[in-house]
């Protein structure tokens, strides 16, 4: 019997694939037989990541804060072969502070990458999927912060809640053309993104808030990504899948 979780012969684009959760997802996809295009802003780290993932990986530098760069990246990726899976993983949260201290520039920076970037990457890829009549899967990496508000992360939480509604809206609009759209909502995960925060005076409390009593590691997130990218989830669209050790239950 065919393995429904196989990604053999599929091509996936993983944004923010140079490290952390995106890198772990790219590695899992390659391990399941996919050809993977990884994107990120920093070119050196991206090329290193791609070469460590092996010959089935291509690096395309792209700043997700720039819709024109996203369009160019998707165009180039598609020229290398049709895309079956897009993982909108690139995301930032460059500050941890109370809402009243956030500046307009800080608001814009987070919204531009987390929400606008995911929107235009999805539309760029989906339109090509429609034109090719192939269908496909979009997997958004959101956050538990899109389900429950996280203190000192109001802007970040709002972008991730917005990404959840984009997930459902795209899923609704695109279901008849065979493009499924789902989201994974990770809980606190040990990556460069959270290193300083977990080591700070807030770290113990954040860990204590997780019902399963530990932070995630990136490999805890990949099973959900493989599921949502593959035929194992072929009748699933518009779903938000928490992978958070129970954090969203609090
Ligand atoms: N670490 C956590 O606790 C956690 C929890 C929930 C959700 N998430 C989400 O998971 C995703 C990955 O987070 P991570 O912890 O692996 O972070 P990370 O900082 O380790 O990696 C982020 C990746 O995104 C890329 N990136 C950042 N800005 C970009 C831009 N403007 N254009 C293109 N690429 C850009 C980086 O180059 C890197 O590859 C993010 O969307 C984040 O919001 C993380």
Q: Can you give keywords for this protein?
A:
binds nicotinamide-adenine-dinucleotide, single chain, alpha/beta, 44% helix, Rossmann fold, 8 helices, 250 residues
Explained architecture:
Helix content is 44%, strand content 15%. It is built from eight helices and seven strands. The protein has one domain: 3-Layer(aba) Sandwich (Rossmann fold). It is globular and about 50 Å long. A seven-stranded parallel beta sheet has the order 3-2-1-4-5-6-7, sandwiched between helices. Strand 1, helix 1 and strand 2 form a beta-alpha-beta unit. Helix 1 packs across helix 8, helix 3 runs parallel beside helix 4 and helix 4 runs parallel beside helix 5. With 250 residues, it is an alpha/beta fold. The structure holds nicotinamide-adenine-dinucleotide. Nicotinamide-adenine-dinucleotide (NAD) binds next to helix 1.
Question: What's this entry about, in short?
Answer:
This protein has 250 residues and is of the alpha/beta class.
Topology record:
Elements: E1 11-15, H1 20-31, E2 35-40, H2 43-53, E3 57-61, H3 67-80, E4 85-88, H4 104-132, E5 136-141, H5 154-174, E6 179-186, H6 195-199, H7 203-208, H8 219-229, E7 240-243
Parallel strand pairs: 1-2, 1-4, 2-3, 4-5, 5-6, 6-7
Helix pairs in contact: 1-8, 3-4, 4-5
This protein binds nicotinamide-adenine-dinucleotide.
Residues 15-16, 18-22, 40-42, 62-65, 89-92, 113, 141, 143, 186, 188-189, 191-194 line the site of nicotinamide-adenine-dinucleotide.
């Amino acid at each position: 019997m065919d393995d429904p979780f196989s990604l053999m012969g599929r091509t996936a684009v993983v944004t923010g694939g140079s490290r952390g959760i995106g890198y772990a997802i790219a590695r899992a996809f390659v391990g399941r037989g996919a050809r993977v295009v990884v994107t990120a802003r920093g070119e050196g780290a991206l090329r290193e990541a791609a070469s460590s993932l092996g010959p089935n990986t291509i690096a395309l530098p792209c700043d997700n804060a720039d819709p024109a760069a996203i369009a160019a990246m998707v165009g180039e990726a598609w020229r290398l072969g049709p895309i079956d899976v897009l993982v909108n993983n690139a995301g930032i949260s460059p500050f941890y502070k109370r809402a009243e201290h956030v500046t307009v520039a800080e608001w814009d920076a987070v919204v531009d990458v987390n929400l606008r970037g995911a929107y235009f990457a999805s539309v760029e890829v989906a339109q090509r999927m429609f034109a090719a009549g192939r269908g496909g899967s979009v997997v958004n990496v959101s956050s538990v912060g899109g389900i429950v508000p996280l203190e000192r992360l109001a802007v970040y939480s709002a972008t991730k809640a917005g990404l959840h509604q984009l997930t459902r809206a795209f899923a609704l609009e695109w279901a008849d053309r065979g493009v499924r759209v789902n989201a994974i909502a990770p809980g606190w995960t040990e990556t460069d993104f959270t290193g300083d925060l977990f080591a700070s005076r807030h770290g113990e409390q954040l860990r204590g808030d997780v019902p399963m009593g530990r932070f995630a590691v990136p490999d805890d997130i990949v099973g959900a990504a493989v599921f949502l990218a593959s035929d194992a989830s072929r009748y699933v669209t518009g779903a938000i899948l928490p992978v958070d050790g129970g954090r969203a239950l609090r």
